[in-house]
Amino acid sequence: MEYKTVIGLEIHVELMTKTKIFCDCTNEFGGEANTHCCPICLGMPGAIPHLSKESLEYAIKAGLSLHSSINQKTKMDRKNYFYSDLVKGYQVSQDELPICEGGYVSIETQEGKKDVHLIRIHIEEDTGKSVHTETGDTLLDYNRAGVPLIEIVSEPEMNSGEEAKLFLEGLRATLKYIEVSDCKMEEGSLRCDVNINIVDEKTGKRTTITEVKNLNSFSSAVKAIEYEEKRHIELLEKGEDTQKETRRWDEVENKTIIMRQKGGTEDYRFAVDGDILPIEVSDEWIEAIKSSMPELPHDKRDRFIKEYKLSPYDAEVLTSSKEVSIFFEETLQYIDDIKLVSNWIMGDVLRRLNEEDASVADLKFTSKDLADLLNIVKSGKINNNTGKKVLRDMFETGKKPETIVKEKGLIQISDEGELENIVEEILDKNEQSIIDFKNGKDRAVGFLVGQIMKATRGKANPQIVNKILVEKLNKR
Amino acid sequence: MDISDLKAWEMREKLLKGEISSFETIKSHIKNIEEKEKVINAFITFDKEKSLEAAQEIDRKLKNKEKLGILAGLPISVKDNIITKDFRTTCGSKMLENFIPPYDASVIEKIKDKDGIIIGKTNMDEFSMGETTKSSYFGATKNPLDITKNPGGSSGGSAASVASREASLSVGSDTGNSIRKPAAYCQVVGIKPTYGLVSRYGLITISNSLDTIGVFGRDVRDASLMLSAISGRDPLDITTKDTSLNVDLEGEIKGLKIGIPKEWMSLEMDTSVREDFQKSIEEFKSLGALVEEVSIPNIVHSEIIYKIIVCSDISSNMARFDGVRYGFRAKEYETLDELYKLSRTEGFGEEVKRRILFGTYLLSGHRGDEYYKKAQRVRTLIIDDFDNAFSKFDLLITPTDLNKPANLKEDTKQYNDYNASINLAGLPSISLPMGGKNSQTSLQIIGDRFKDEMIIKAALAFEGAVK
């Protein structure tokens, strides 16, 4: 390809700590405007922030889960600028010494596995929110002011919208997995800015980087990237260049629109925050955090491959969320058949959940119920198809599989004598099928099995039916 | 007997014995306020009714023999840069002319817990930026000892209120010299404690690592009574330490090693200041102290280092005063930018603006590395010098101020000192009169960090001897 797209992402993630970063106010989304506030998060004169250990711990967790190194000596800095949602005239952030440096997110691209590296992760406070009314007034809600954030900055190592999407999905899965954030874009707990430009690989010419903001979903990020790719290439082909500017994605118009030109570099006059003492992170603390963390998705995936002999794909699916992986392993405690359990969870269970946009937590039945059902199927008391019907019932009613089987009389008919009678009956009614069979039309067998199943309301043991049917046909 | 002539600890004794009431005590001070305020202008806001009501409540408790705090019934004034709930806090600025805070500073909570009565908020240089109290939006304060002189600053209102018997005790703040200079000019006792002895929560910040809340009293015992009531650990200020100050201290100086910083003594100073200081050295010797010269070489840089750090801090600390949520907002503006510009242009005085501009310049571009960080490194050298001195000496002494009180109108030549170095190193220091009745000079006793009791004991011994 002639043109190469270069994409770097900056992601802000709100940490779901109990309190805000510098005070004891609750860190809860929403609430009546300006009710989750105190003199500290409002930046009242004289109020002094105190850094919450929990916020720092969450940031360290995020760093560890993304393979970053932790800066054990760090500090908080002031980023000076004026805006009405910013209560102190500066944002407390980190400049030279971010809490985490380096790290990566692995993505599975069409060309194979690729590690997208991180430059840094730093911790900072969120700002308030401006609410613009229809009458043209701006109202300010400071409930969000002081909510702990991490900003994750990637290297410009993604080369397509698809890769950016995979990166975002991987990042979100990890952060949700370790429970540092709920990563809800619609509530703003995950926000993403895109930096993009194009390199003409023949000439080495590159366009000036554009920043795109206001991306409300991963798919709008992809659309914005694709729109910008096109715009950059068109300009490049005309022999022109892009401007150094910030654009926003317009969901309605399906295009990016210029927000502001970036003249030179903005001077935030970073300086250490004199209210917050230098931070030292001990080895012991990092170890304690590590040991408190759940097994990470990639570690778990590797373990599943090794321990359960699953294919990389199956392991990936079964570790895609923490809940699914736990459900899988719990089910295995009640039934000794890895293949059966993984097939059923990956198949019917996950498909149904996806259809309903639900999660494992929404299931009306437990892992033991699923195992019980599979044990019934395995014992041959009901057949596979009946098992699926029972599972559908379990989804809807939450009833125990034994109860459903009993209530609906679904126990499989495996008694050969009984089945022989039924087979005879069906054959008597379908002379034409016998003729077809004799003429070598294999389809006839399938038709006859169907008729037998219909007659037994699906309860006939298919293997036995097949055996008897073939015997009888050959005899006639 | 005029109650307001008594020292605070004397009032306290008489109140507890039932010889006087808190109501009478407060009333005698309010009488002074009503008589003198028009001239002295020590207060920006005071509340006669509330103070008297509070006094009656204390009297009721006294009568019922209820348990009372150490400040019970005493009239206390507080510098107007310390946040008081539901009570106007202006910082001496138009910017906060009508600011009624929704919370109390930790020291205010402590004073209230200990049954002290806050009779009013005292005048100060705007946002503590000055040494004269003349830059207050609410007019200059006059020196009660001589109304043609300024009272020193920035806590000039606090020192003047104690000197004029408008309050018995006062709480002020010191970032570079703001308690010690007015204490010296008004001839009262002032203590700038160790950084971290008193919670700064609720002190309107100018420079986070230098600001210190401190106290004023008529004598050393008064000042230490006030200090002991407000010191100690506060979870809202993590720089505070869990150390309490003993209230009943006795003078003690014998056998202590006292250093005289030679760089300080080679500064130009008023002749009578030098003479009185020489006499003080002799006094310490006769009290059994060992007095020797000591070198603290890097204090010669303290003034410029102080300016760089303070102004850099000010530039961001003052940014919250933007006219959006509280404080002054310009009447006419078109855009958000204009709201900021006009509110800050109209709301701040000259000195505040000068320091914001200077600090903004210092942090712009790459200058942050060039000035701020370098200043922090030199600050470390100054701290090392003091640590070195305190490894050999128990105390250091200097004149508090190298001048006698300056004229209110014209600025006469002022001799500069190294008082800001004490803040740079976070040390405790006490200022007390040294030259007898009419001399208007004061002595500064400096201790090592958290040796506040030691400077008070030395001051008690010295004060007892020169009386």
UniProtKB/TrEMBL annotation, chain A:
Lineage: Bacteria, Bacillati, Bacillota, Tissierellia, Tissierellales
KW Ligase (keyword) present: yes
Gene3D superfamilies from the UniProt entry: 1.10.10.410, GatB domain, N-terminal subdomain (1.10.150.380)
GO terms classed as biological process: glutaminyl-tRNAGln biosynthesis via transamidation; translation
Organism, as annotated: Tissierella creatinophila DSM 6911
A GO molecular-function descriptor: ATP binding
Protein name: Aspartyl/glutamyl-tRNA(Asn/Gln) amidotransferase subunit B
Homology family: Belongs to the GatB/GatE family. GatB subfamily.
The keyword Ligase is assigned to this record: yes
Reaction catalysed by this enzyme: L-glutamyl-tRNA(Gln) + L-glutamine + ATP + H2O = L-glutaminyl-tRNA(Gln) + L-glutamate + ADP + phosphate + H(+); L-aspartyl-tRNA(Asn) + L-glutamine + ATP + H2O = L-asparaginyl-tRNA(Asn) + L-glutamate + ADP + phosphate + 2 H(+)
Pfam families xrefs: GatB_N, GatB_Yqey
Subunit structure: Heterotrimer of A, B and C subunits.
HAMAP family with a match to the protein in the record: GatB
Domain of life of the source: Bacteria
From TrEMBL, chain B:
Enzyme active site: 79, 154, 178
Catalytic activity: L-glutamyl-tRNA(Gln) + L-glutamine + ATP + H2O = L-glutaminyl-tRNA(Gln) + L-glutamate + ADP + phosphate + H(+)
Keyword Nucleotide-binding annotated: yes
Transferase is among the record's keywords: yes
Keywords attached to this entry: ATP-binding, Ligase, Nucleotide-binding, Protein biosynthesis, Transferase
GO biological process, one term: translation
NCBIfam families: gatA
Complexes and interactors: Heterotrimer of A, B and C subunits.
Protein name as it appears in the record: Glutamyl-tRNA(Gln) amidotransferase subunit A
